[in-house]
Design a protein that fits this description.
It is a single chain. The chain has one helix and seven strands; from the N terminus they run αβββββββ. It has about 150 residues and is an alpha+beta fold. The strands form two sheets. Strands 2-1-3-6 form a four-stranded antiparallel sheet, with no helix packed on it. The protein has a three-stranded antiparallel sheet with strand order 5-4-7, with no helix packed on it. Strand 4 and strand 5 form a beta hairpin. It is globular. The N terminus is likely disordered.
């Protein structure tokens, strides 16, 4: 009987531990209170564009594109953070690539999601840049429907 109580108590603790584990949704993060800027989801509702910034936490915008862009020009390989503020609907997600003309490895970013510090993110597998850090390493993007 004692082993049954021990087993039940262990199972209950396991359930509590799983329920207390934080879950990451999409690719969004929240800035620590000391790093919150005037740029927030509430302050920046969808505008139909994909934004890239020269600094982390969405500071010093380099460009904002409403369409697919095969070459980021002056913003190529300079991004420290990105934010997908497309309008919800068809092709509202974005796929970023490490090479111009939609080449090399890529990574998807859901509609409404921002990546405030690209040091923390890597490209997927396939092609050049496979598994490499996205920091200062994005050159083009396409709007897509992610699963």
């Amino acid at each position: 009987m004692l082993s049954l109580r021990t087993a039940c108590a262990g199972a209950a603790l396991t359930v509590l531990a799983v329920m207390a584990t934080p879950v990451m949704a999409n690719a969004t993060e929240t800035a620590p209170a000391s790093e919150v800027t005037s740029t927030s989801t509430a302050a920046n509702p969808p505008d139909g564009k994909f934004h890239t910034y020269l600094d982390i936490w969405y500071q010093n915008e380099c460009a904002a594109w409403p369409t697919d862009t095969a070459s980021w020009g002056a913003c190529k390989n300079t991004s420290a953070s990105v934010w997908n503020l497309r309008y919800p609907g068809f092709n509202d997600d974005v796929w970023v690539y490490c090479n111009s003309n939609y080449g090399g490895a890529g990574r998807g970013i859901y509609n409404g999601a921002g990546l405030p510090d690209l040091h923390d993110w890597r490209f997927g597998t396939g092609g050049s840049c496979s598994g490499e850090q996205m920091w200062h390493n994005i050159a083009s993007h396409k709007f897509v429907n992610l699963p």
